[in-house]
Amino acid sequence: MKVVLLAGGFGTRISEESAFKPKPLVEIGDRPILWHIMKEYGYYGHNEFIICAGYKQQAMKEWFANYFLDSSDVTFDYRNKKDERIVHECNTEPWKVTVVDTGLRTMTGGRIRRIRKYVGDEPFLMTYGDGVCDVDINKLIAFHKGHGRIATLTAVMQDQSKGVLDIGGDNAVKAFREKKISDGAPINAGYMVLNPEIFDYIDDDQTVFEREPLERLAQEGQLMSYMHKGFWQCMDNVREKAMLDKLLESGRAPWKKWEG
Fold first, then answer.
1. pLDDT at res. 257
2. More exposed terminus of the chain, fewer Cβ within 10 Å: N or C?
3. What are the C-alpha distances in Å from 211 to residues 107, 200, 257?
4. What pLDDT, on a 0 to 100 scale, did the predictor assign at position 10?
5. Average pLDDT taken over every residue of the chain
6. 102-118 pLDDT, tens digit each
7. Which of 13, 1, 133, 111 is CA-nearest to residue 57?
8. pLDDT at 168
C-alpha cells in the first residue's frame, strides 16, 4: 500500500524549531521525525510514500534531493573539467517518495484531497508527520480488510489534546469529536487505513479531515478503531522532542524496530 504523510502544517507549538524548517523535518537524534515514521512503515514492507507538503515545502524537497548523496560514499572527479560522481556504497532505503505541494494554508482534509491522483483507486495508509508509534502496520491492515468499512484509525489511551472517540463493543466508532481537557477517553493517533471512497467525504481545501469527514464516517458506521496498547507519542513541543531524543539515545525507542 502507498503511505500518505501529512507534513504541511506550520508547527507553531514547536516554533523554536519550525521557524527554520517544516515540523516533520525536526530531528529525533540526527534524523527528521518524518524519516523515523517512514522507517516504521518500511519495516513492514511499505516503501512508497506520498508526502503532503505545505509550509516550507522547498526544504522538504531539498532534504530528499540530498538524501541519496548524504547517505552514500561518493567520489567527485573534476580532473577532466567535468563533474563526475562515482557512488561506491549507498545506504539509502528502497523508497519511492513523491513530495506534493498541497498549499500553504490548506487544511488536513484538503491536503488529502489534493494527492488523490497520486494514490489512485486503491486503499492507502495515512498518518501525521509528527508522531511515532510501535503499532504493527500489517496487523492494522488485516484488521481494516476484515471489517470492510471505509476507514480505520489507530486509537490509543493517552492524555493528549486530540480527537476523542466513542467506541462501541464491536470496535465501530460511534462518534468523533475534539478532545476536552476533562476527557479520559481513547484518542485518534493517526496511523489510518483508508479506502478510496474517503475522497468523497472531502469537499475542498478548507475541509478539516478530523471534523466533518471523520464525524460523518462515524455517524454512518464507516469508521473503525484499531486499539493499540503499545507506544505512541506526538512531538508537539520541545519537551516532547527531548523525551523522544532521550529514548532514542538510550536505545529504548519503542518505535525503532529496524537495525542500524
1. 96
2. C
3. 11, 14, 33
4. 85
5. 92
6. 999 999 999 999 999 99
7. 111
8. 78
Pick from 147, 240, 259, 136: which is nearest to 191 by CA? 136
Q: How far apart are the first and last CA of the chain?
A: 25
Distance (Å, whole) CA 170 – CA 168: 5
Beta-bridge mates of residue 5: 51, 127
Question: What are 22's three cell numbers?
Answer: 517544516
| Cell, residue 43 | 519495516
**Cell numbers found for residue 164:** 476523542
d(CA 151, CA 109): 14
Q: Residue 13 has what pLDDT?
A: 72
Burial class of 133 by CB neighbour count within 10 A (0 to 12, 13 to 18, 19+)? buried
What does each C-alpha distance from 177 to 123, 214, 215 come to in angstroms?
A: 24, 9, 7
> Nearest 5°: phi and psi at 84?
-100, 130
Instruction: Report the predicted TM-score, pTM, of the whole model to 2 decimal places.
Output: 0.88
pLDDT digits (tens, 9 = 90+) for 172-222: 887 776 555 445 578 999 999 999 999 999 999 999 999 999 999 999 999
